[in-house]
Amino acid sequence: MGLFDRFRAQPRWKNASPAIRTAAVEELPLDQQDTLVSIAREDRDPGVRITALRKVIDPAVIAAIGRADADERVREEAVSLLVDLASGAFEGTEIAESLAALGGLTEARHLIAVARAAAVETVALAAIGRLNDEAALAAVARKAALPSIRLEALRRVSAPAELTTVALRTEFKDVALAAVERLSARDLLDQVAERARNKTAAKRARVLVRTIDAEAALAAAPVPDASAEAEKQKVVTAMALCERLEALATAGLDEGEAALAEIDHSWHGIEQVDPTLVARFETARTAAQEALARHLAEDAERARARQAVAEATAARNALCQQVDAIAGDETPVRIDEARAAWALLPEWLDTAEAQRWTRRFEESCRAALARHHTVIQQRTTREKAGHLCADAERLAERASFPQARVEVQALRRAWLQLTAAGFDDDVLVARFNEADARLRDRETAAREQRAKSLQETHGRLQAFCAELEGLVKSEGLSLKQVEHALREARAALDESAPLPTRQDREAIDGRLKAILSALFPKVQELRDMDEWQRWANAGVQEELCQRVEKLMQVDDLAEAARQLREAQAQWKQVAAAPRDQAQALWARFKVATDAVRARCDVYFASLAEEQASNRARKESLCERVEALSTSTDWIRTAEAIKALQAEWKTVGAAPRAQEKSLWERFHAACDGFFTRRREDLQHRKEEWAANLARKEAICRQAEAIAGTTEWQKGIEDLKRLQAEWKTVGPVRKARAEEIWQRFRAACDKFFEAYQQREHAAASSAVAEAEAVCQELEALLPAADAEAQPAPDALGEKVAEIRKRWSEKIAGLQRERAIRMGDRFMHALGRLTEAWPASFAGTDIDPEANARRLEELCAQVERLLAPEPEVAAPAEADDDQSPASVLARQLREALATNTIAGRQDETANWKVISEQVRAAQTAWKRVGPVPESASRPLNARFQRACTRVAEKMDKSRRGVATR
Predict the structure, then answer these.
(1) pLDDT for 446-466, tens place per residue?
(2) What is the CA radius of gyration of the chain?
(3) With b meaning 16 or more CB within 10 Å and e meaning fewer, what string describes 581-609?
(4) Is the pTM of this model over 0.85?
(5) Fewest CB atoms within 10 Å of the CB: 472, 709, 865, 933?
(6) Span 131-158, pLDDT tens digits
(7) Dist CA 433 CA 430 (whole Å)
(8) CB contact at 8 A, 701 and 721
């Protein structure tokens, strides 16, 4: 707390007393929401927090305080306030505020309370929308104030048990009848008929029970023919409508005109009803209409009565709340106005309720007046306490002790009388206590200061006595010292300064008297010795006068000036002479001294002129070197400064008062330049080293790029490094050429490799393909070896080698790829021929590949048939070989051409040509086949393809002839 905060008056809601804080919170206006929220959250007393919470407006803040407070009462009060706000219990509550308050509620019981009591349908619907338990919804349906909410809650209930509970326990006819209508079990309807609170619901349940019984009896009766059964059903329906109309006339009036219209509609739907039932229906209808009219009139009267009661209650409650909120100096006037307004309220028929509200009003008035009286009394006491605090603070600031002791004691007595009456303003009490503590501190400090001052005086006098006593015992004292000590001892004895005790005073006085007694003989002795000394000094002074008078004939004025200074120094040592001769001797010495000094002044004037010239030259040298000290032309400037330094040495002395400052100025300018030159050299060395490090890093990057084969990326990176090289500053000359040649060599290496990239890539691809071929050939059996078993996992190894071969062969030139492909396929054929079992089931299975070749031969040969077979399209089989799929496509194409009627031979042979090319492509994709089997098949396939080509050529020539 700062110094000013201690003197600032604290608000009453920060008082130490919970009762005072509660009263202060009740007086706070509603526009001070920040203060009320702070009190509701932070006050240490739950009662004060509850009082502040009741005046908080924001529902979200109320909910947050309720969730965070540790006291159960505060949490319950917060929930109660939220329920009241959501229900619209407070006058002027808006829908948004009610919905916000509803959002702060989490428990189902609170949501049920809001749904039951809410005066706004939107809020009630929002409350039941958050209920998922059918028991909770049934509770709302039984007791909700709004009919629409009761029916909506019932609509969300589906359990028969909860529907039965609503029908049994609710007092509202509309929801009771709606619940009964949704019941279908006879046992549940029996319960409602026997125990329902609402008589209309009970009667309706009995009607439904009878209907169920009648339907059951009809169902149990023998099955008549269709017309009799329809007639019987018509009678049952008419009787049920009559019974329902009769029940409506007696107890179902809450259903209103809607139920009457529904019964009329159902009646008109029945054709050719028995006249007796018609008469019964008309009589019941007339009775129901009359009963309905009476019921509506009674309901209107009851509504007016309830409205009057609600208005009277609201008016009285508003006046009571207005009186509860009264505070301030106008409390009596406002209470009189409230009493006058109460007297003008209309009379209430319910005497007991009117008396209860009157008692409530009177209690509020008495409480308001009591608060007002307490406030006035506290204000008066507070004003007195404020004056006392101000007086105490004034004295604490300016009072001088012990003069103010009487005034301080009177102030303390007045404060004790005030607080004895029950004053409990913590702020003012703390304020007075603080001022009083400062007063007591000042009193204590004054006492301590006086005691310290007396002790210091005693110590000072003891030290003074000890010093004089030591002076008395010492030897070689001068007369002046002894006379000074004698005067001080007499002054201390005459002063008689106050001391801590009388004994101290007596002891000091005794020591001073003893000192005086010892000093008197010493003074007399020293005075005699002084007279003798003066007499001896007279002869010395006479001799000094003669020496100075002789200096008038000395031609060397510098020597004369020196001897004059020596004589003046000796005169000071023998200045004391006999009093009758002292003045004459001094006058003689002064006249001689002035004459010699007059002669020396001419010499000193010329010396001063020479020194002034030297000073001007040295100042010029300082200015010149200072002008050069900021130069960056290091070599020439250094030579110039060295020349100025040599010239400085040739200049004589300047005046003594300025010689040192001039030298320091000149030396500082020189040092400044050479220091800057050293720093610049060091900086350039560091810059050269940094640039060299950057260029070495660039060289390393370029050398790393020089070996790459990613040509485009390498070119871009080298261009970037070349551009970066240009931005790097210079390096030391000894290393510049070396680092440049290193960088250039790396770049040249890359670009030379770039120019030879195609040849290198081709050589690399050939080498890699050669390595794959050699790896496959290494698996072949020896030519002269006997039959030997296949190597382990031969099929997997060959498959992996083929996969790599397909990758490597793509990078070769066409001629080399053909030669190496033949070599690879020859080795692969030898492998499959040597160990065919190792490749069974794979795409290089020799037997399967031979079958595929035979199928392709047969497919092409079938194209030579005079009329290709027409086959029905077959479903695609994922397991068919490429040759089978190709044959099927050929057959489908030929069939299509045949079915189409008159064929276009050119189009047909075009299709056949495409199919032959497809067969040739498929032939090339077939895996290796032993040479003994592939040679005849290859010849057969080629003959078939040649024959197809010849036939196509003949066909085209025939078409051309036609």
Answers:
(1) 777 778 888 888 888 888 888
(2) 65
(3) ebeebeebbeebbeebbebbeeeeeebee
(4) no
(5) 865
(6) 888 888 999 888 888 888 888 888 889 8
(7) 5
(8) yes
